Amino acid sequence: MENIKNTVKEKYSQIAMQPKMQNETSCCGAGSSCCGTDYTIFSENYTALSGYNADADLGLGCGIPTEFAQIKPGNTVVDLGSGAGNDCFVARALVGETGKVIGIDMTEAMLEKANKNLEKLGFKNVEFRLGDIENMPIEANIADVIISNCVLNLVPDKQKAFSEIYRVLKPGAHFSISDVVLVGELPQEIIREAEMYAGCVSGAMQKPEYMSIIKQTGFKNIKLAKEKQITLPDEILLNYLTKEQLNIFKKSGTGIFSITVFAEK
Question: pLDDT tens, 194-214?
Fold first, then answer.
């Protein structure tokens, strides 16, 4: 598991230094060695949202978790895998001056970028902390809302991650998490690729198992707020599969989905 974390951390340190366009035109920012194909696969358009800051948008998301997060003025919001601060700044526009937003990320380069953006914006109620989602540097029962965008699929121990989310949320509070899940088994050729792992797909869990972990952790009122299938272009899949394997894969019913899940503590 530590090797996986190191791979992800190294890759996202590289991503932090890349322009948004380069991130968007690769597999969730995994770089040209992953795809080399000009497709925006997962990322959503944030530009019309209040609080949007272009410098903080690295094009790495697979949804807009704040869309379903029911964030209110005065709330305390925690963003897991906050990157350069994109979702934090959107959340800050919703909590207002009286609320608070805390971003957590395990990559020093991302935190440096987020803090530079924060300094330019001058917000006093947003902070970024270096930390691991499986062991958050944050007190229990503090968050009104937890959000995350295309990050938990990269966490090796998802059960521990959701247990930490449960710990940090106040009683009756909730999360809104956008993530990538699978329906059916991806070919081993793709799963073996560490580049693809850091690029959102191979670290993803089967959808039924993902939803089961949320329920087993103790969450209630679990809702699939949004779901869309991701169609990977043949040009990408052919980096990992032969033409024959690709045809079998396309007929198998296997799917890659971006989902946004809402649940209450």
Answer: 345 435 565 778 999 999 999
Q: Residue for token digits 């530590």?
A: 2
Tell me if 10 sits within 8 A of 110, measured CB to CB.
no
Q: Which residue, 125, 82, 135, is CA-closest to 107? A: 82
Could you tell me which residues come within 8 angstroms of residue 144 by beta carbon, excluding any fewer than 6 positions away? 71, 72, 75, 76, 77, 169, 170, 173
Distance (Å, whole) CA 95 – CA 77: 8
CATH of the domain at 98: 3.40.50.150
Instruction: Dump strand ranges (E) for 66-168.
Output: 76-80, 100-105, 126-130, 143-149
Closest CA to 104 of 141, 59, 147: 147
Please state, in angstroms and as integers, the Cα–Cα distance from residue 248 to each residue in 201, 230, 232, 256, following that order.
19, 18, 15, 16
What is the domain extent for residue 230?
Answer: 2-264
Q: How many domains does the chain have?
A: 1
Per-residue model confidence as pLDDT tens digits over 79-100? 999 999 999 999 999 999 999 9
pTM to 2 decimals?
0.81
